[in-house]
Amino acid sequence: MLKKLLTLSITLTLSTTAIVHAKANTEAGKQQAAACAGCHGETGNSTVATFPKLAGQHASYLVKTLQELRKGTRNAPMMAPLAASLSDESMADLADFYAAQAVTSNEMPLLPLSDEEEDEEDEAAIELIKKKQQQKLDILLAKGKSLYLNGNLESKVSACSACHGVNGDGNQPASYPALKAQHADYLIKTLADFQKGRRSQDADNIMGMIAKKMTDEEIQAVSYYISVMNRKK
Asked: Is 110 inside a domain boundary?
C-alpha cells in the first residue's frame, strides 16, 4: 500500500511539474510573440492574407521553420533577421505559445471580377454575376477537395491528405504542418514558390516535386479548399 502511495505521489508531482513547465513556456512565448503580432496577430491569427497563420500549428514544425530561417536554408528576407536573434529556448517558447492557440475560420473566398463586372450597376445583372461566381466557386472548391483527398492519378499529383491529414491537422511526429484554415493567398504563394523552385528546404524536395506537377488552377482550387476546411457546415 505504501509503495502504491509513493508511486502515485511521484506521478502527481511529475505531472504537476510538466504542467507548470508547459505553462511557463507558453507565458514566455506570449511575451516573445508580442514582437510578431504586427504581421501574425496577437494569437497567431494574421489578418493579412499573405502572412501565414501560426495559431494551432505544431510546435515541432514551428521550431523547425525558425531553425531553417536562422540557418538561412529557407529564404525569407523579412523573417531571417528575427529568427537569427532567437535562442533555441525562445524558439521553443514561441512555438509552444502558438501551438496552444486556436486557429480562426476564414470567410469564403471571392473569385476576382472583370473590370466590366466590377462596373456593373444594374441590380438584375449584379445578381446574375453573383450566381455565376458562386457556381464557379462551388466547382473550384469541389476540385480542390478531390485533389486534397485523392490527388490526381493522371498527372501523378499526390493527395495532400497523405501527409497533412484528412482534416488538415498535419502530422506532428513527422513535422508536417497543419494546413486547415490557412489563408488561401499564402497557400497559393507557397505552392507557386515550390513549383518555381524558389522554396525547397526539405531534404527530399517532396513539395517541390508535387507542386511542379500541379496546374495554376489546381493550386488555386486546393488552396481555396484548405482555407475553408474548418468552417462550420
From this structure: no
Q: Which domain holds residue 70?
A: 2-99
CATH of the domain at 173: 1.10.760.10
Cα(53)–Cα(39) distance, integer angstroms:
9
Residue 163's region, left for phi above 0, alpha for psi from -120 to 50, else beta, is alpha
Do residues 147 and 160 make contact, with C-beta atoms less than 8 angstroms apart? yes
134 belongs to a structural domain: yes
Domain-located, residue 180: yes
- Contact criterion met (CB below 8 Å) for 169 and 91: no
d(CA 35, CA 23) in angstroms, rounded, equals 20
Last residue of a domain, one of 75, 99, 123: 99
Residues 32 and 95 grouped into a single domain: yes
The C-alpha R_g of the chain, in whole angstroms, comes to 21
Note the pLDDT tens digit of each residue in 119-156: 888 889 889 999 999 999 999 999 999 999 999 999 99
- 60-85, pLDDT tens digit by residue? 999 999 999 999 888 888 999 999 99
> 3-class DSSP state for residue 152?
strand
- Burial profile 202-218: b = 16 or more Cβ within 10 angstroms, e = fewer: beeeebbebbeebeeeb
- Supply the DSSP symbol for 228: T
Instruction: Assess whether 130 and 223 both reside in one domain.
Output: yes
